[in-house]
Amino acid sequence: MLDILYMEDDENIARHVAEYLGKYGYRVSVYETVAGAKQALLQKCPTLALVDWNMPDGTGCELCRWIRMNRKELPVIVLTVRGDSRDVVSGFENGADDYVVKPFELEVLLSRIRALLRRTGDASGRYLSCGTISLDRETMRVCRGAEEIALSPLEYQVLVCLLENKGRTVTRRNLLEKVWDSNGNYVGDNTLTVTMKRLREKLGQPDCLKTVRSIGYRMEE
To answer: What would the mean pLDDT of 204-212 be, rounded to a whole number?
Structure first.
């Protein structure tokens, strides 16, 4: 199922859109504020974002700019009651890929979503995240919130392994085999302990990185 982040403060409109798209295999998560949408995007990258123009705490353009800085490949459709060409141009200049003017037919919105995804594909698998920690597989960029964190190659590989298994405990043995043995490096258990200590420090001791005593580690929200 493809995930859609939908920023809309009108509960009635949001419910109808979510129910309709759900019939066609889309899982829609609705957020009523720009702040809530940003927080959700830091936790997980969806397949596509539907962004309403006017929100209680900001604008759709504001979120588009933020997306282009933090989730560059995420497709964005702006939904607006405005039909003025200046507003349309502003939306595109701030990072929108397409726009739909309210009121709209749900069939038209679905067609626009499908057409955009045919052009862009699904980039959601490019990003891994947990808590405030996010990782871009393509650029190998790791961030805590909006702050970029520099990791060593081994620290990066450990973090990827933990994020790929988010919610599951990864044993120390599995980490040693996957990260070190796969690179032809045969090291002692203490090396993993030191690497995890440094990784925690660089990530700011995140609450989402748990130690399972005598067994291994787990990333969880």
So the answer is: 93
Asked if the model's pLDDT at residue 164 lies above 80, the reply is yes
- Provide the pLDDT for residue 187: 61
User: Could you say which DSSP state residue 179 is in?
Assistant: I
Predicted TM-score (pTM) of the model is 0.73
**Average pLDDT value over all residues in the chain:** 89
| SS3 label, residue 177 | helix
Give every CB contact of residue 53 below 8 A, 6+ residues apart in sequence: 59, 60, 61, 78, 79, 80, 81, 82, 87, 91
Residue 148 CB contacts under 8 Å (≥ 6 apart), including other chains: 141, 142
Q: Which contiguous run of DSSP H or E holds residue 69? A: helix 60-70
Q: Could you tell me if 76 and 67 are in contact, meaning their C-beta atoms sit under 8 angstroms apart?
A: yes
Side by side, the strands of the sheet bearing 170-171 are 170-171, 216-219, 209-212
Are 9 and 55 spatial neighbours (Cβ–Cβ below 8 Å)? yes
Q: Cα–Cα distances in Å, from 97 out to 41, 119, 166, 181? A: 17, 10, 31, 43
The mean pLDDT of 63-79, rounded to a whole number, is 90
In angstroms, rounded to a whole number, what is the distance separating the alpha carbons of residues 91 and 5? 17
Per-residue pLDDT at 203: 94
Provide mean pLDDT across the span 101-129.
90
Which pair of tokens denotes residue 81? 């009651």
